[in-house]
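Lecture notes, continued. The same structure-token format from the folding unit now serves as the input rather than the output. Read the line below as a description of shape only.
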């Protein structure tokens, strides 16, 4: 049975952020993920404590957390490739790893960042490699993985296909020996960018650290568009993927989870492992 995790940064947005983990639990899910849930890369300790408490009180597992990505509504898509924000990124890594260590989270999404004026793409790629290696070392301390994601809808974001992300992952590995950096395969973004998802799964399925789904056009619930999500998930599972499937879509219906029977919402990786044993 597939184990799902609800992205509470894009779903349940009619509720205050700290109420969303409980809402996901009330809907029958036992796992959630978040983009960076604070306004600053280095939020006050009280805000961090309140976030941790909201997860713990809801009784859900935080399966993934984004590193700080800048002002997302304004178009930012990461800060790690901005030479001027290296210290901010690294300070953020420390806080994110602390949250993850407390909650048992084992995956971090490291959005690469847009191309920016005043710095060459090569200079940005150099600092991105250094920062990703730094993040990978910090994540490795708690047995966690750093994820690299191709993204759509951001004209200056340089990673559009699975191959683009794999090139970054390979460079970090080759130059720094980081073996815990993996691909985040968001089928919606890959589809919108025109990537051959079936071929990407064939080529890189064993390097996928996390998968997220939404349908297209519209980025709505599975079944509202044209992407053969089930086919891709089955193909990925056949390549050995046993992780969570992140629900990272925009609600288009009053009951945004009606497509998924309640009995299928509460599966966890731990339960799957026990079943396999």
């Amino acid at each position: 049975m597939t184990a799902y995790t609800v992205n509470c940064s894009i779903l349940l947005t009619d509720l205050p952020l700290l109420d969303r983990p409980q809402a996901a639990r009330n809907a029958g899910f036992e796992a959630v993920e978040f983009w960076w849930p604070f306004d600053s890369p280095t939020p006050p300790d009280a805000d961090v404590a309140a976030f941790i408490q909201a997860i713990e009180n809801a009784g859900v597992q935080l399966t993934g957390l984004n590193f700080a990505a800048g002002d997302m509504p304004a178009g930012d898509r990461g800060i790690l490739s901005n030479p001027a924000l290296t210290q901010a990124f690294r300070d953020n890594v420390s806080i994110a790893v602390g949250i993850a260590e407390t909650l048992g989270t084992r995956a971090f999404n490291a959005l690469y960042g847009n191309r920016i004026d005043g710095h060459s793409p090569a200079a940005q790629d150099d600092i991105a490699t250094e920062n990703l290696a730094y993040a990978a070392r910090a994540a490795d301390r708690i047995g966690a993985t750093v994820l690299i994601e191709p993204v759509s809808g951001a004209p200056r974001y340089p990673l559009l296909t699975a191959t683009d992300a794999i090139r970054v992952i390979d460079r970090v590995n080759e130059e720094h020996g980081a073996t815990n950096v993996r691909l985040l395969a968001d089928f919606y973004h890959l589809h919108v960018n025109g990537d051959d998802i079936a071929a990407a799964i064939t080529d890189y399925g064993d390097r996928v650290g996390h998968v997220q789904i939404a349908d297209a056009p519209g980025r709505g619930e599975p079944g509202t568009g044209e992407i053969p999500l089930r086919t891709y998930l089955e193909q990925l599972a056949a390549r050995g993927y046993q992780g969570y499937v992140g629900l990272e879509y925009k609600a288009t219906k009053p009951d945004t989870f009606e497509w998924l029977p309640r009995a299928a919402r509460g599966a966890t990786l731990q339960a799957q492992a026990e079943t396999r044993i």
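Point for the exam: The beta strands are 4-7, 31-34, 61-66, 107-109, 145-148, 181-186, 208-213, 245-247.
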